[in-house]
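Field: sequence (string)
Field: structure_tokens (string)

Example rows 1 and 2, in order.
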Amino acid sequence: MIPEEITMKSCIKRYATLDRDIHNGDGEGMGAGCRVQIISANNRGMTIQTEKCPCCHQFATISNVKRRDLTLIK
């Protein structure tokens, strides 16, 4: 969980790990422990993105992720 004293805007471009499995409306999913980058934030939550796969170059993006679902990587 990202503590309340850390603003969501200050998390942009930082890396985090997921604390639980999540998925978006298109069925793309990310498992707990997955390393993601926070690419934007607004009053509804943060948008996160996985790194590109070195083989197939695919990645997943999920919006409106809450701070309780992420742990920042130092």
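Row 2 begins here:
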Amino acid sequence: MKFWILKKPIIEQATLSEDIFMKMVRYATLAAALGFLGMSGLTAAQEVTLRASGSFQPDHSSSLAMERFRDSVAERTNGEVRIDLFPSNQLGGASQQVDQVRRGSIFMSWSGPSFWTGVVPEIEALSLPFVLPDPESAFNLVDGPLGGILSEGFEERNVIALGWGDLGARHVTNSRRALNSVEDFNGLRIRMQPNEVHLSTFRALGANPAPLDIAELFSALQQGVMDGQENPYSITLTNRFQEIQGHLSDTAHFYDYVVYLVNKEAFEGLDPEYQEAIRTSMEEAIEWQRSYNQEANEAALEELIEAGMTFTPISDELRDEMREMTSGVIDDVRARIGSDLVDMVLEEAGVEQ
């Protein structure tokens, strides 16, 4: 007996027990409903295979968390659900992953949320410059009411947010000079994520920022198209930017996250026990990743200095000056997404309004 989906036989079997037959019917129905939604053909003798694409290197904590997630899902489903991982932009850069997971050509992505601001503008609230003082405040936001609002925004766009991992504070590196004053930002061509808050912040500091996918960043720095970039220390290290950047600072201008997303239609088409296995496994992986990533960022700073980068700490006076210069960016965010979300962030950060 054969069932044909998209001209491919997804089920083939000779004689079957009633229990196995019902499993096959369930899988065939699922495959018919999902089509190309990031899933392979399904049979009673094969596992459900889901593709997940990430913009981080395999040795970054977010990718290591995905390995733990993959293994946990397999264990919880007795091998019936298999997650195939494609880190390092193998299936396309972070910007492409946005379209891929929305269309369902991949089941899942893990990337920085800034790439989603064009789809879910409310994400801009997470990027207010020089506001979030520590990881605890950052996590309280995405684990609380603001995170719920963002989740609703994703679901309206056919995507489910399984959770938020930790990237950490973002810091500037460049190949031109140490950053000892705001004047040292003048004219620096800094690669940014495609997030208007990020771009406006560095324009206010006098730099010349430009959006670029991280998949293209190494060559842009190497060829001098860009003078610098800004990322958490572990991202700078795992992408080997220390090989082509000489100056490192601790600007901590934004606190950033990893967002783990799945295609809504594909996820809801899975059996409830599979959905539960995926959610529980992701929660555990994120809990591990948040703790591990903070340690990884601390260790990465030491490795970057050992690799020969010149580290210039930002003084309190300079940071206050940078905060003042970029305060207008927060007003612009209010105008775009409303005051309620901005006020949530400022209240959590303890900033007087």
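free_text_note (row 2): Confidence is low (pLDDT under 50) at residues 1-36, 41-45.
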